[in-house]
Amino acid sequence: MKRTLAFGGLVATAGLLAAGLAAPAQAAGDVASTPLAANKIAAQNIAAFWTAEKAANLIQATPYNVETQVPAKHVSTGGPSADSKPGVVPAIGDEKKAAAKSKNVNLPKTTGKVFFKGADGQPHWCTATSLQSGYKNLVATAGHCVYDTVSNKATMDNWIFVPGYYQGKTPYGIYVGKQAFTHYDFDVYEDGDRDYAFVTVYNGLKFPAGGFADFKDMKWEEFKNYAGAQEVDEATYKAYQDADKEKSGRGYWTKTDDKGQTHYFVFKWADAGRLGDNVGGQGLAYNQKLGKPVFVFGYPSGAHPDGNQAFSGKTLKWSYGKTFAATAPAIKGEELQGVKSSFTGEGSLGSAWLLNYNNGRRVGYLNGVTIAVADRDNNKRIDTSLSPYFDGETYGVYSAAKNNWSGSIA
């Protein structure tokens, strides 16, 4: 909903949209921006939270399912309205190529999981995707997979993006969030019509050969030549302690040698490079006419209302359908779009809705992100996914995020 409708009001119906690219005006006050990791040491501590102790937190993380399923009686047809002409931002590598339709589906490398610590203190994950940007460092997902709508303390802690994640493996590296951008109406009112976020990430971090080990019980002779450890001075060690908000001790530690001398160590990370260089980045589409087909890519998990466990959340899945207008007052959504999909809600939050997806290049235009699911025909099977309608205000938030540099933290 627009801010003038933040507390209720009529929903306008969409008309025919004129073709062409337009960059709509966007007031600076419509964008909320929050830091996630302010510097190199803080970012490395976040990465260590997920990878220490043989990547225990990564492996044990569960899908985030806060306010996921919307009762069918609270989902009805509505009509999001375009606020300017339709426009697109091309995907990385697709800047001079026309998108094409394809009957075959190759899964995109751009999609992965975002991990964070929720308000319950436990590790969770959502789906997210890499997006075109000036520095090839931008991730898009649902707003409530970044901003904490449960405890209202601001953003989630220890936020990272892992494209291609599978059972503790991080094939393209770990990308720590630097700065989060969302719409003012979501940040303040938790407006479902603005439930999206764009996050800049630092260059990826890769762990050296040998994998994520548990250093606590290693003897000095075994440990001193371990490739994953970098010796530092005491001042640097204390800087890591000071940046560790949770005082977890992960990612930095001391060891005593055979002569009784104390040595200080931190994780030794390698720079994996920029996100967009490694996996590409989807384009962005906004103010598009409803009724167009989209592919939805995500990691659905959890059971249908009848108890059927259709998805494990371990592998990337896709669904396909045409968008339609929808409202869901239960999540403050009066100008949403829906698509038929059997994706269950747990894990599918943040799933990418890609318009004009090209099978060969595995890119298209991000035109939505899943924020909720519903069983609209009341047969106890999820059949609908819901997303904010991407309009000029979405483009404005994206524009605020797209040209922010992050750089290496290795």
TrEMBL record:
Keywords: Hydrolase, Signal. Gene3D superfamilies: Trypsin-like serine proteases. Its EC number is 3.4.21.-. This is Trypsin-like serine peptidase. SUPFAM superfamilies: Trypsin-like serine proteases. It comes from the Bacteria. GO terms for molecular function: hydrolase activity. InterPro entries: Peptidase_S1_PA, Peptidase_S1_PA_chymotrypsin. It is an enzyme of class 3 (hydrolase). Residues 1-27 form the signal peptide. It comes from Microtetraspora malaysiensis. The keyword Metal-binding does not apply.
